[in-house]
Predict the 3D structure of the following.
Amino acid sequence: MKPLLTATFALLFSLASYASEITIYTAQSIITMEPSQPRATAVAVQNGLIVGVGTEASLMPWVDRFGGKIDRQLEDMTVMPGFIDPHVHPSLPAILTQLPFLAPDDWSLPTGEFPGALTPEDYKSKLIALEANHADRSKPFGSWGYHELWHGHVRRAELDAWFGDRPVFIWQRSFHEVIFNTAALDHFGITQADAEAAHGEANWDEGHFWENGLFAVFRNLGYLIEPHNYMRGTQNFLDMAHQGGVTTAVDMGLGISSDPDIELQLLSGMVQQAKAPLRLVMTPIISKFMQSGKTPEQALEQVKQWQQTYTGQVSVRDHFKLMVDGAIFSALAQFKAPGYLDGHEGVWLVPEAALKEYAEVFWRAGFQLHAHSNGDAATERTLDLVESLLTHFPRRDHSFTIEHFAYATSDQAKRIKAIGVIESANPYYHYILSDSYGEHEIGPSRAEQMVRLGTLERLGVPFTLHSDTPMAPLKPLTLAWNASNRQTINGHLTGQNERVSLDAALRAITIDAAWAVGMETEIGSIAVGKKADFTVLAQDPYEVGASGLKDIEIRGTIFEGRFAPVH
C-alpha cells in the first residue's frame, strides 16, 4: 500500500476511534514546506496529528463536527515544521555540560553564558578563574572546549604549572581528546600502562589521550555518568534542544560514552519523566560492538532486540553508523595529498576489512548506513564502499549517508550524485575552523571550501544540516545561517560559491532532514496525516533573509499537538 494511502487510513482510524477535540492553531504565517500549499494561517490538530491546513474559516467544519477550540496565542508569530537535527550525541552534553565551557566561540547554554577565548593568554586567565570559582573542592576541576589552534599547546606540564597539586583536566572542543595534569591522573587512577595500551593514541608524558585512547580511560571518569549527574546533564540536553526549536533528533552513536542498554533506559526514562517535547531516534554504532568483540551478525541481533523494546518517543529504527576517519576538530581526518601542512596524518578509526564486514551485514538487512567521514581520503574510502555494496547487493532505496562532510572535492561531489549518496553536513565546521585550518592545517584553498554544500545544491544532491552537538550549537537556525552565509568566526566571507539558498537551508532542517532519516511520511512538513510537530518563531525567516537567521527568536515548540513555550 502506498505510504500516503496508509497514512490517510491511519488518520481516519484515529479520528473514528478517539474522536477527541480539535485544536485549531492560528498564526500570522504558517510555512508548511509543502510545494502544493506553501503557506497557511491555521492548522487543525487532533490526537497529535494534523487533520487540516488552511485558514480559520476553512477549518471550522472540523470543530463543528468534533468540537474543539481556536488557540490564538500564536497569531502574531510564524510557525514552521518542527526542526530536525539528524545527528546529535545526547550523552556527550549530558557529560560535558556538567563542566564549564571554555572554547574559542561564545556559547549560550542552559547552564549559563560562556564567552569564548581566542588567544592562549585569554584561555589561561579564564581557565584559572573558572577553577578558582569551582564550588565543590572535593572533586577534580574539569573544563570543556580547549583547542590548540586558539589556546596554544596545553598539556600536563602547563596544567601542573598553573594548578599544582589540584586535580585538573581539560576536554578538547570535540570531545575526542582529554588532557590531565599529574594530580588528575593520580586522582583517577590512570597509569602509564593505560597509555601504552591505547594503540598509539595516548601520550603519557603529556597526559594526553585521544580517540581510542580517550575511551580506554573513560571508565576512570565514572562520576560523570553516575545516574544523578548524568540525568542532570541529560536535562541540559533536552533544554538545549527545546531552546533551539528541535522536535526530532537522531542520536548518531548509541552508547558512545556508556553502556548502550543503560543509556537507552536512562534516556527513555528522562524523556518520559520530563514530558520532553522531543523524540529521539537512537543509532547503534560500529565501534561499540567491536569493543565488546561482537560479530556483525551478533550486532544485528542485538539491534533487532532494541528495536522491539524501544518504539515510542525514544526508539531504535533501521539505522547503523560506521566510523571511517578521525575528528576534524582534532586534525585527525584523513586527507588525500598534499595532506596536512606539517606532514602529520589522520587516523582510520576502524580497519577497512571490519568496516566492510559490518556494512555488508546491515546493508543486506535493509538498514540505512551512516558513515562518519571528514576528509577527502575518507570520502573516497566511503564511496568505494558504497559502490562495492551496490555492485554485489544492489539496492534502490539504500539512502547511504555521509555524516559531517568536512571536506570533499568537486569530483567527489559528482560521484556522490551518481551513486545516490545523501549528505548530512555540519556547516559550523566552516564557521569555526576554516580560518585557522587555512593557516595551520590544510592551506586556505581547501579550508575555504570546507563543507561544500553549494556544489551539492547545484548538483541536486539531497543534504541536511546537523549540529553533531556538542560540536556545534543545537540551534538549527544557526546552522542554516552558517550554510547560507559562510561567514567565519573572524567575520570573513570565504568560499562564497559554496553558500546554499535560503530555501535549501530551511528545507535542510525540516523536510529534507525528515527525508534523509526516512521519516518524511511522519514529520518534516505541515501536511494532513503527519505529526503535529511545529517550531514557533518570532519572525518569518523568508522575510528576515539569510543574514538574520541566527537571530530569530524561538518562542516555543508544539510537539504532537502540545504547545511548550521557551521560557
